[in-house]
Protein: Iron complex transport system ATP-binding protein
Amino acid sequence: MSGRDASGRETLGREVHGETQRGLEVRGETQRGREVHGETQHGLEVRGLTIAVPGRTLVDDASWSAPTGQITALVGPNGAGKSTMLRAIAGVVPERATVRGEVHLSTARGATGRLGTAGLDTVRLDTVPARERARRVALVEQLADAVPQLTAREAVRLGRTPHHRMLGFSIGDDGAVEAALADAGATTLAERRLGALSGGELQRVHIARALAQQAGSAPGSALLLDEPTNHLDVAWQLDLLELVRRLAADRPVVLTVHDLALAATHADRVVLVDGGRVIAAGDADAVLTSDRIRSVYGVEASIDAAPDGVAIRYRRIDA
Ligand SMILES: Nc1ncnc2c1ncn2[C@@H]1O[C@H](COP(=O)(O)OP(=O)(O)OP(=O)(O)O)[C@@H](O)[C@H]1O
Structure:
């Protein structure tokens, strides 16, 4: 787990020796990432992200991380700044916005990588050209555009756009599209038109499009999902979360969600945001306490361990 400063905010990049993260002792920080018991931890790291439009700061000095291999949930009230942060990581900011801060993506340097040594390759996403950024980070938005006449396969193919050069295609497009459809469990939907898909099916196609966008982006990429479980019934939610868990195995996955019990049950890490600021970040049980829920949401919460996760009941403070 990361350290906290006096205000309770996560102190990224200043990990305290001896603190544990998922049972592993954090020994210190390398220049390119964190060393965990000699292993190097990789993923997405947001440092001091500040986004302001004239007259208003939407995101205020936000620092948090999303390790590869884990699901990180961004939670917080309506208007907290979650979507603004995800969009900014993907390189999309409001008009006339000023943006400060850094976004780093670290991936394991494989045996065939530079010098053939173990370690991390880090790219600073906020400094790379837009097309490279699009290959390294894909965002599935809440109201992702869906042209109803397109087939799922055609929609997924659009994800390859950042890879195209002058001729409008790139080598490996077909393979990337089919692999993305398969990885998202959407192969059987390939010939269906988007306008005829259910919300859950459409969500899979959007995720497949994001995977196609990232395919071939050596050495790695991050997947951002804005409220992916919105409008899904409970069975589709579980299906989607299973898919997300699989995808998180080899990339950092960040999702926003309003259901705190779902975040506590399915995410490895929770980042609580309010008023554009990170209030706390770390393991769900450390972040989602009744006190914090009361102060951020203004409701009383009873949090209980349930056989398959965490159950939270809410009541109004004055009830
Ligand atoms: N382009 C913009 N110009 C000005 N303000 C904006 C712009 N985009 C978003 N905002 C404001 O920034 C704040 C944060 O919005 P954001 O959509 O990031 O919140 P959120 O946490 O994702 O909320 P929700 O859970 O309701 O989706 C809101 O008050 C919103 O009105």
In short: The CA atoms of residues 87 and 93 lie 6 Å apart. The mean pLDDT is 81. The first helix runs from residue 82 to 89.
